[in-house]
Specification:
alpha+beta; Thrombin, subunit H; 34% strand; globular
Length: 305
Amino acid sequence: MNIYKNSVCLLFGLFFLLTINACQSGRQEKSDNPVIESNYKPEAPINDAERLKSFEQQASAFYKEHGGVDADTYKKQLSSKECEAEVLPLQHVPYSAYAFYRRFRKSVLMMGKMYKCGHCPEDHISTASAFMISEDGVCATNYHVFKSYDPSKPNDYITFFVMDYEQNIYPVVEVLAASKHDDLAIFRIDTKGQKVPALSLGQEQGPGEAIHLISHPDHRFYTYTQGHIDRKYFKPGSKKIRQSISAEFAKGSSGAPVMDKCGNVVGVVAGTQNIYYDQEGNVYQSTIKEIIPVSRLKELIVLHD
């Protein structure tokens, strides 16, 4: 009987020690892999119309006083194939939910093409997306954002500005490097010597990996979506490397950063392609949301960590 009791006590003791070790191991694992969190406190809603109006008014006033780089100059600069940039080191701590949005929206830009509508004397802004990749004002967007230049159209654009989340505007002073093949462009804004919050360039991710996106779909500024990478492929009929993702975006999202859970850029939004059941395009089935892998962006940059 005593042997039985001793055996039970021994087994219970072993179970207790294993339980304690497991808890300590779990706490250690959590400690080694922290997640940056932020409790949501209700914010003022984004007023899209007012934000766009502010962008147009600030950009117009700046241009009237200081001028800006003309569209022809941007077009010529798109031939540059490589540039230097002092990028930030890779980030390793993940962010949760609202903390992610609050932190990384500061590095996402409204890309503003100034143009005349031909029907009034006012300056207007057509928006796309962009993001900062160095603290001294080097940014990235799509090639086609700059290339949309047609002198025969009445709304031919005049120059470019960007506006950040805090509604500060900066003139785009130079296209540093670009690739028509990859639909990417690197450009510089004038920050007046001030450091700006930038994103780190991460590693290309594979199918199934989680991704996060902040962009400006159809004047819905600073919209957050999330999903995963679907696959990597050649764009039909070309040798252009693309990936597709499940996170939602739309026109106006061109040039936005696709990020991992730590906020490292893993891709750049490119565009969408609709799939229809019939050749006439009468029966819509789904939309392919294309991005450009970050590895293609890195090809344009001489990295200085």
